[in-house]
């Protein structure tokens, strides 16, 4: 599955001990096969991490994939208002990238770059 999961997380305005609006479950955009994932964002020490907890086919049926349970981003630390930066893993490439996340209301813009080439995906809360 291809997840353009390159990241930077949300609201860095509060302390690490306060409730962060980025915590919880987010739904990725579809990959090239139309599959989506649910990523759970949790605290990892002073940073945020994300792990794939479920995957769905283009038709909306839950599917089994080797990526479920895998960490897709980590070390996401505050990098400004509603912004985080850290590292992400993209399953389709099986590579790590520098990543940023930006919380925009109920949306999470996840971006990653290799040199000057960047890609983004907007995640939302699942229904």
TrEMBL record:
Pfam families: DUF2147. The keyword Signal applies. Gene3D superfamilies: 2.40.128.520. It comes from the Bacteria. PANTHER family: BLL6627 PROTEIN (PTHR36919:SF2), BLR1215 PROTEIN (PTHR36919). This is Uncharacterized conserved protein, DUF2147 family. Residues 24-125 form the DUF2147 domain. Residues 1-19 form the signal peptide.
